[in-house]
Amino acid sequence: MRNHEVTERQKLLKNGQIAEPGWSRKMVQEYDRGDIKAPKFRIKEWDYYLIMNKDFAVALTVNDMGYMGMLSASFIDFTKKWEHTETELTLAPMGKFNMPPHTRDSVVSQKAEKSSFEFVTDGSVRHLMCEFKGFDGEKDFRCDIALNEPEQDSLVIATPFDKKGRFYYNHKINCMQAVGWAEYDGQRYEFNPETDFGILDWGRGVWTYDNWWYWGSGSGYVDGIPVGFNIGYGFGNTKAATENIIFYNGVGHKIDDVTFVIPEDDYLKPWKFTSSDGRFEMDFEPIIDRNSFTDMKWLVSEQHQVFGKMTGTMILDDGTKVELKDFLCFAEKVHNKY
After folding, report:
1. What is the structure's pLDDT at 123?
2. pLDDT class for 298, splitting at 50, 70, 90?
3. How many helices (H) and strands (E) does the chain have?
């Protein structure tokens, strides 16, 4: 059945394969590196946070890619249509980052030559701290942000690949109120919990080598009610469930396929999004394209993470229409060989 919901607590993997592909509102499937039937250098584990408001955004990533570790921070200024990303790489952590096997009470803590990252979760608040020396030339970057995580639905999805032993286990959390600050180039930027939100993209798994993916997400208020969405496709076998969902006042409303209509000659031209069930129909006006291209022969990455504003209609399970108008979000197209 498409969009099969997993409700029983169980081990994620059986003989290295996902035991029950599908999606859930909470993390009920238990991830354990010891259950993986693949080389350590193929295992990928990351925590990615994005915190934004109408003027600026901060993104933080700790990523153990097996043969390479990555610590990355981004600062995006929507008013100036400017962004900068800085990354430090480490060789072959292969599990030494000790990435938590779940998104509940946990600590992620990593340091490199110029940067330090710490994500501390106690079940209700996610405390994010980063310091990056020489982030942009001689300009340092620092942030200290708390994300308040209310009792609400989220999106957990267990996606197999057709290749044996390959899978992706992913937890996306939207609509977390953000409070705190970031400092860059002598200026302090404040997050306000009455208007600003953060999201988490938590991923664990064993990927195939060559992948495309499409992902979009947004969180905000509509008529005083917290509203969010997660949309995407492009990797793995999604016969059991899509990763498309609408969040309205803490409740998840699962939807079917969503297609990104992208003007690939210019990512800053208007986009469109359309759904197979008619429940997510949007126009997207880009603000800035956070793009990058890396070609190391054996490792290739081409990324376009485009921030902008959506206008259109989402339809909840009971048929209620939710109208978005200039709703701040992002959508991306990424190609990785890694």
Report:
1. 85
2. confident
3. 0, 26
For residue 287 the two structure tokens come to: 């603000």
Contacts of residue 110, defined as CB under 8 A and 6 or more positions apart, other chains included, come to 62, 69, 71, 97, 116, 117, 118
Angle formed at CA 45 by CA 40 and CA 51, multiple of 5 degrees? 165
* Residue 169 pLDDT > 80: yes
Whether the predicted pLDDT of 297 surpasses 80? no
Nearest to 312 by CA among 271, 276, 256: 271
Residues in the chain: 338
Question: Which residues are CB-neighbours of 271 under 8 A, at least 6 positions away?
Answer: 260, 261, 262, 263, 283, 284, 286, 306, 308, 331
Q: Position of tokens 């990533």? A: 61
The answer to whether 222 and 323 are in contact (CB under 8 A) is yes
Token pair of 273 as six digits? 């999004």
What is the rounded distance in angstroms from the CA atom of residue 87 to the CA atom of residue 117? 12
For the cut 90, the answer to whether the pLDDT of residue 125 exceeds it is: yes
CA distance 319 to 255: 12
Q: Are 77 and 56 in contact (CB under 8 A)?
A: yes
Q: What percent of the chain has pLDDT over 90?
A: 95
Of 161, 182, 315, residue with least CA distance to 240: 161
Residue 338, pLDDT score: 87
Is the Cβ–Cβ distance between 253 and 317 less than 8 Å? yes
Enter the pTM of the model. Answer: 0.97
* pLDDT more than 70, % of the chain: 100
User: Which residues, in sequence order, are CB contacts of 329 under 8 Å at separation 6+?
Assistant: 216, 217, 218, 219, 220, 229, 284, 307, 308, 309, 310
